[in-house]
Specification:
The chain is 84% helix and 0% strand. With 426 residues, the protein is mainly α. The chain has one domain.
């Protein structure tokens, strides 16, 4: 848990340093163009098929039993499945690249830039899939602390490489090059750490079997369904902002939403460690197991209320002067209120985190799909109806809709987690 807190602080500092640099050299419009590309990369991440969290859960279970052979088989199966899905995603991007950017209503110059970089984003997506397998495998090997540190190092590398390239006169491609460098660093560091923990050999095709692939897809299916719906929310909102408010409003949304999510991750990183523990306890099927899992969930909720609520409130109070200091000449008046409403939305979603990891540890992943349908459906209906009715939208209004969205999905997940912990459901 301590590593999660430390790395979240580092990640927050990196974000605070990074955004002014990006906006200074690129401006809101060009940075908005990069965020359009990042949105495409977000869509491509759906090709992950939910396998990442499934690898973490299954590796944790097998490593707890001391079965290194099974750990290797799950990693090999994950790498094979994700290379296939990543290749499919690349083909889709290359085939429909013109159709992908049309809905964003970009200017000719910006559209040309996106078309130029889109194939590289597709190739990067495949590599991201591979790197994520090593990240979650390391977490499953009971070293989530190392995963957190490595991810923070990757974020730092991204800002440093981007800043150097932008200062040297390169444009938006600096963001792409820095992303590649970051994932390369994460990849190498994760492999070294895994090898120091266990003698695992990767890419052993002879270890590939349908049973382990099926198990990964079974667990990952529910996570994928939820991710499919949840990941559609932010890209859809950016699309609607681009169409009804202009591409220069996307960085405001990104700064406010990602800033709030970064603050939320401070607590998420502390609570996340309960998932592998719940997975281990659930295998015992005893009354003691149930009480232990309930205790972990309740302690997590106490952390949110005792520390999260006052810290969220404090950040909302100092949002305006803090943003003026951080953004300096890039500061815009709509940003503080956008950040405040996003903070409220993400705090509500934070309340679902203990329930989320409890459900994941218990393997009740189908509930994620239903929660995703509730959240994404509500967001789609509210945003679409408002845009059609008024002909415009703002980041603040979109944040209000996210509050409604998260209230609905959070309420459902908490109720399902409580139901899953009933003795007759185990």
């Amino acid at each position: 848990m301590a590593s999660g807190v430390a790395t979240t602080v580092v990640n927050t500092v990196v974000m605070v340093v990074g955004y002014p640099i990006y906006l200074h050299f690129l401006g809101y419009e060009k940075y908005g163009v990069w965020l359009v590309l990042a949105t495409v990369l977000t869509f491509v991440q759906l090709g992950n098929l939910g396998i990442g969290p499934a690898v973490m859960k299954l590796v944790a279970e097998e490593y707890g039993r001391g079965d290194i052979e099974a750990v290797q088989r799950y990693i090999t199966a994950a790498l094979a499945l994700l290379c296939i899905s990543g290749t499919v995603a690349l083909i889709v991007i290359l085939t429909f690249k013109s159709q992908i950017i049309t809905p964003f209503k970009l200017s000719d110059e910006n559209a040309k830039t996106v078309l130029w970089l889109l194939p590289y984003i597709g190739v990067l997506s495949i590599y991201v899939f591979v790197v994520q397998v090593f990240e979650v495998a390391l977490s499953g090997l009971a070293r989530m602390d190392l995963t957190n540190y490595i991810q923070s190092a990757g974020r730092i590398a991204t800002v440093i490489v981007t800043a150097v390239l932008l200062y040297s006169g390169r444009g938006i491609e600096s963001m792409l090059i820095a992303s590649i460098a970051s994932y390369l660093l994460i990849h190498i560091a994760s492999i070294i750490c895994i090898w120091r923990i266990a003698p695992i050999r990767f890419w052993q095709i002879n270890r590939l079997d349908t049973q382990h692939c099926k198990r990964l897809l079974q667990i990952g299916g529910g996570v994928f369904g939820s991710s499919l719906l949840g990941m559609l929310v932010s890209p859809f909102n950016k699309l609607m902002l681009s169409r009804y408010a202009g591409v220069d409003t996307i960085p405001i949304y990104e700064l406010a939403f990602q800033g709030a999510c970064m603050f939320r991750s401070f607590f998420d990183s502390v609570i996340r460690a309960i998932m592998p523990e719940i997975s281990r306890l659930y295998g015992e099927y005893t009354e003691h197991t149930r009480e232990r899992i309930k205790s972990l969930k309740q302690r997590s909720m106490k952390i949110i209320w005792l520390f999260g609520l006052p810290l969220y409130g404090a950040l909302m109070l100092v949002a305006e002067p803090l943003l003026k200091v951080c953004l300096r000449q890039e500061y815009l008046e709509p940003i503080p209120n956008a950040l405040r409403v996003m903070l409220i939305a993400t705090f509500i979603s934070l309340l679902a985190v203990p329930a989320h990891y409890t459900i994941m540890g218990l393997g009740r992943v189908r509930y994620f799909v239903i929660a995703g349908i509730i959240g994404a459906g509500a967001n789609f209906v509210l945003v679409t109806a408002y845009c059609i009715t008024t002909g415009h939208i703002s980041v603040f209004i979109m944040g209000l809709f996210l509050i409604v969205t998260f209230v609905m999905s959070t309420t459902y997940l908490i109720s399902r987690a409580n139901h899953s912990l009933a003795w007759n459901s185990l």
